[in-house]
Amino acid sequence: MLLLLCYLQYRKGGLLKKLIRSNSTIIEENTQLKVENEQLKEDASQLSEDVNSLCESYLYKLAKGPMKFGSVDGCYERMTLYAHSSNGSFIPLGRVSYNPEYDKKGRINYPDDQGCIAKAWRNNWHFSNDYPDPETATKRYYQRCEKDGVPEDIMKNVKMKSRLYCGFRIWDNSGTEPLAVLIAEATDPHRYQEEELRSIFQEEQKWFMGELIKRVKQRIPDFKEAKLKGF
Amino acid sequence: MAELRDIIAHILKTYPTRYDMSNARLTKLVYLSDWRHCLRTNSQISNIKWFFNNFGPFVWDIKDTAKENPHIFELETTTNMYGDQKTIFILNSKDYSPRLSEEEMKSIDHVINETKNLNWDQFIRLVYSTFPIASAERYTYIDLIEKAKEYMS
Asked: Structural domain of residue A167, as residue ranges?
């Protein structure tokens, strides 16, 4: 009896050792797989690590296609995709204009309570083209911008003084989380009709933009975090 | 200002070894070190003239320096599962002692400490959240000292 008990105890111990060993092997393999997964992510992202490049490729397609940028003499157009960040600002993810001066990045973030970005974000859709000529009616132009909540001192530093602004909110594809805003603008107030833009930015485009932003979400810059980390 | 080979050697000596040190990762670590040092001392550690392209802050100097110093570094070229060539940096000479000032070492060690636990997405996000990259135009040289002044003002 004693011998049998000893034998069973011995078997139990062996089994336990085996289990511990296989558990630690699984943990080790899991860690190794995690590292390999990270390496693969790194390898895969070499061509697409820049969120701006990805978003701008899409915006260029829109500009060249349905938006027909550069097809009206004397008028410049621009599109900017802004992601909404949790700290209450918009971060530009991509900007396209055929005018190199207007194509530049601008500020690194924008408040979410100013201008047509705020209006599009709040109301889902925004269109306005009643801006006076900034060359001949400069004061009235700034007054009109102030009505949108953009102070004159800010507007003075904005290179592209547009006379048409259109924007809309982009949701995630489950329709539960607002993610971003797309703003289209033009220096000619009659460059686009509101209905024309509504038809260009149909559900299909919005769906694609929602999908695009969802995919780059992990890479959207977080300036607050960078500052906290000492950068 | 330090020699680039000493910056690379210090990173390779100190960075946790669980990840292969690719050119992409190493270049960005040197960039972050230069940026951190600019914020602290208004000067870069390396004399790299940083260029912003599709890969973020990108220069060939790091790979070139490693090639020029085979007694310190080994470059291992492999093909990843996407069929692309990938270069891994290995410190050949474990006894090599990088010549860096205490302040330079502090900046690099700060970068290592802040990034060693980040996954690749988080690491890339941090690089792209730094002011020089967020504010510079792509395909231009970045003056980190000027950017630091602008950022601090």
From this structure: 51-227
Query: Is B110 within 8 Å of chain A by CB?
Result: yes
**Predicted structure pTM score:** 0.81
Element (H, E) at A209: helix A203-216
Which among B51, B121, B122 is the top mutation candidate for probing chain A, defined by the most A β-carbons within 10 Å of its own β-carbon?
A: B121
pLDDT digits (tens, 9 = 90+) for A25-40: 777 777 667 666 666 6
End-to-end CA distance of chain B: 24
**Whether residues A60 and A103 fall in one domain:** yes
Is the separation of the CB atoms in A91 and B131 below 8 Å? no
Query: For chain A, percent helix, then strand, then coil, each to nearest 5?
Result: 50, 15, 35
Helices B102-115 + B120-128 axis angle, to 10: 130
- CA–CA separation, A181 vs A120, rounded Å? 7
A161 shares a domain with A177: yes
ipTM: 0.87
Q: How many interface pairs between A and B have CB atoms less than 8 angstroms apart?
A: 88
Contact A230 B138 (CB under 8 A): no
